[in-house]
Protein: Beta-eliminating lyase-related protein
Organism: Actinoallomurus liliacearum
Amino acid sequence: MPENTRHRRQAAMRGCDRILSGARPATMRELLAAMQAAEDLDALPDLYDGGPVTALEERVAGLLGTEAAVFFPTGTMAQQIALRYGADRTGNPTVALHPLGHQELHERYAYSWVSGLRAVRPTTAPRNPTAEEIGALAEPVSTVVVELPLRDAGFVLPTWEELTAVAAAAAGIGARLHLDGARIWESAPYLGRSFAEIAGLADSTYVSFYKTLGGISGAALAGSRELAAYARVWRHRHGGQLFQQWPAALTAMAGLDRELPRVPEYVRHARTVAAALAELPGARVFPEPPHTHQFRLWLPYPARALEDAAFALAEEEKVWFASGWRDTEVPGVAMTEITVAAPGLEWTAADVAEVGARLIDRTAGA
């Protein structure tokens, strides 16, 4: 997204009285105020390690039921090291990745360029691989990656039974299972299991602190003590051993305290919002119903017209619908992602239908 569009979106959202998709952007002053609300601010900060960073690692390990967790400044770094660990332990540089996975679309193939690994594709279908597809891989792999949910397929999740079968299939071919759990927080309601039960299927799990939880940055890689020791060495080698990271750790802890308990409510309400949006003329939502609090929406208009209408609605009527519209392979049809967070809980199905109709009116009249 161009920088000027991002700034315009942030300003428009902050000026709105009602927000359907997303959360109101926070100012730096507001973020500092959130950090000041943390407990024990008189404690010393981390110095390369320790302090609130260690406390956060211990809390994540407890949530996920793992022996240890290691804080990382970015998820891209954490995921690279998870895959490198598997390759080093097995001597096999080949990993099973989905072509729509985060490593392929959003990490600039770091696993290949930085670590010298190569990928095979268990499937190209817009979903995570099945147990049968893992078992049918034509060559050995050191790690199988499952993204929960698979964001670029529409935030889709496997069922619990499918996920347990994939874990068993990975073990059956002698591979580790790594969960890209950046959005594991909102995956648990659909899977019907605790975070510990989900992570318990895997050899390593990555989680994000700014996606969903609202932290300023940061991630964690969770697994065995052996993985954690390895991760700390390679975190340093990748330049991730920062002198102080307490601001990110404090906002992550705040997100675990305040935002995480509300996530199941967001997921439930996303179904109400999606059902109302699906009733708009020419609209389509996917998945239907949503698996998490995020889903895709298509409308039969060009992306530019929808984007202009969304900003006009925000700037003139102080109501934020959604932005980030992009044209699809179907001419005249655009798609965006909807995220139901705290502000969206205030919207009834009737509210969604009424504002959606106003957006369409503005778009059609442009």
About this structure: The chain has two domains: 3-25+261-364, 46-243. The chain has a mean pLDDT of 95.
